[in-house]
Write a structure and sequence with these properties.
Layout (H helix, E strand, L loop, with lengths): L1 H59 L1
Amino acid sequence: MAELKRQELKVGDITDVVEEATGLVKENYLVGLELTSCLWEKNLREKVLNSKLDSIKLLRS
């Protein structure tokens, strides 16, 4: 009976470690995805603003 409890404890410990690691991987993935999205949005804004400024410069000249 004592051996069974030890085995259950070992499996429980491994499960906890795997769940924590999975949580970290998921969190890092989501942070990376959010960062990529923010950078893409920033670059898109800059391109749109630059094209508008170029259009205004062309109209003025």
